[in-house]
Amino acid sequence: MDNRKRHLKHTVICALVAVVVLFLYLNTERQLGSPGAPAYRKHSALPSAAEPQWEDPGPYHVAYPRNYKFIMDDTPTCKTTTPYLILMVPIAPHDVATRDIIRKTWGNETLVQGELVETVFIVGLPGGSDAEQQQEKLKQENQLHHDLIQSNFQDSYHNLTIKTMVMLEWLAEHCASSAFVMKIDSDIVLHVENLVKLLLDLSTPKQNYMTGLVWWHSPVLRNPFIKFYMPRSVIEESEYPPYPLGMAYVMSLDLPAKILGVSHQIKPIYIEDAYLGMCLKRLGIPPTDPPDKAMFLVTPEHPLSDCSLSKVIALMTTSTLQMTSYWERIRQKVRC
Predict the structure, then answer these.
(1) Which InterPro entries does this one have (predicted)?
(2) How many other β-carbons are positioned within 10 Å of the β-carbon of residue 143?
(3) Closest Cα to residue 276, out of 253, 245, 233, 319?
(4) Which residues pair with 151 in a beta bridge?
(5) H/E element holding 51?
(6) E strands, 159-204, where?
């Protein structure tokens, strides 16, 4: 009888040990990613203290735990097509009017200099009392256009870094065979032909390339009463690493996976373009100034002259009416 009890006890202990080992194995696999997961996911597991989790990360960081899911993603871009250039537009879920203007203007240019160009919009979850109605409208809009990519983070200005990192996740997973992506804000008019000409130029790098309106020696703002204040407890340095302004920047499509690969080493701040600069610094890849800074205009004097408009790539506008007006002039092939 004693031998039988000892045998039963031994069996139970072995079973418990096996369950614990299996749990630890499955948990490790979940963190590191399955064999078919993107490479950046396989190497991004860190102790939980390395970066903020789902709980409120405070006013200067964002919660980016790398397990947001895509809940709307039936665009053919990078799945049944291989565009040379993807135009990725982060935009508020409710802003249907601006999406429609972009679809009718520069977002409608699909074959430029012989290269395929495709435009998609990325959104998070709508908020407010009418969130369910907004979500239903988004579904209907996507059934019509098939150009919306939605992830299950809360869409807000403070969460722009999350939006950017989720965008990079999607690009790394789907678009490695394409050449370039431009992240472009919804209030920008884009001269697509000038952009493609720049990218096709033999002097433009095809890897480790990011350009836009690059801010060099951008100071970390210490005045707590102004926008973008950042305390020393978050960033000790007096300057941010160089980064292209978030209004519009271009990167070669080897970069999304590389940025994601080092991002787990840097606690994400809510200033999305500055955070990208921090990731680029960790990679040892500085951004590149465009051949002419007049290609990217953040505070232009409106109306822009024909000569200036003929050279521009990305131009910030003050209204969709102004965006449409500039695009019509661009279509007329304005020159100096």
Answers:
(1) Glyco_trans_31 (IPR002659)
(2) 10
(3) 245
(4) 70
(5) none
(6) 180-184, 188-190
Say which residues have a Cβ less than 8 Å from residue 120's Cβ, sequence separation at least 6.
75, 77, 86, 87, 88, 89, 147, 148, 149
How far is it, in rounded angstroms, from Cα 295 to Cα 154?
A: 33
Question: Which stretch of DSSP H or E encloses residue 8?
Answer: helix 2-32
Q: Cα(106)–Cα(86) distance, rounded to whole angstroms?
A: 12
Q: What is the distance between the alpha carbons of residues 188 and 248, in angstroms, rounded to a whole number?
A: 8
pLDDT tens digit sequence for 240-271:
999 999 999 999 999 999 999 999 888 888 88
Reduced to 3 states (helix: H, G, I; strand: E, B; else coil), residue 73 is strand
Strand ranges (E), the chain: 70-73, 85-90, 111-112, 115-125, 148-154, 180-184, 188-190, 210-215, 243-252, 296-297, 314-316
22 vs 207: CA distance, rounded Å: 41
pLDDT tens-place string over residues 126-153:
988 899 999 999 999 999 999 999 999 8
- Distance of CA 166 to CAs 36, 63, 69, 123, 151, Å? 19, 12, 9, 10, 8
pTM, 2 dp: 0.82
Name the nearest CA neighbour of 156 among 63, 218, 70. 63
CATH no., domain 48-290 = 3.90.550
Alpha carbon distance 323, 257 (integer Å): 32
